[in-house]
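Morning run. Coffee first, then this:
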Amino acid sequence: LKLSNIVMCYAASQPPARAEPEPCDFCLETTLPAAKKCVECEAFLCQGHAKKHLEKPAFRDHTLLDPSASLEDRRCLVHQEVIKYYCHTDHTCTCVSCCVIGPHKNHEVRTLQEAHTEKEAFLQDKRQKLCLDEKSTEKA
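And here it is:
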């Protein structure tokens, strides 16, 4: 009985399946299906337009996702801007406005990429220490 409730709740939380893929927003004559979705532009892009999008200097730092991915969890709930920063003070992801004029002003903030690299190095170091501890425990 509980499993069926879990399945029903999960199914209700999922977005409805689309019968056809989203079309590319930039194809003019023959509309191709979108292969990516740009987080910043909120545009659907076919494979060719996705490649061109990232080749332009102004769009190089844009994030391209699977076209079915939700953008809602990548936007600030207050400012509706793309989340690009991590606040070390509050241990949360945030947008530029929150960093400059909002609740994270004067906090220790890094780009998501920098925070990811730091966290990855930290976890790698922890893993190595745990492996060493495990080896020394096995020898004892």
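The CA atoms of residues 4 and 124 lie 40 Å apart. Good start to the day.
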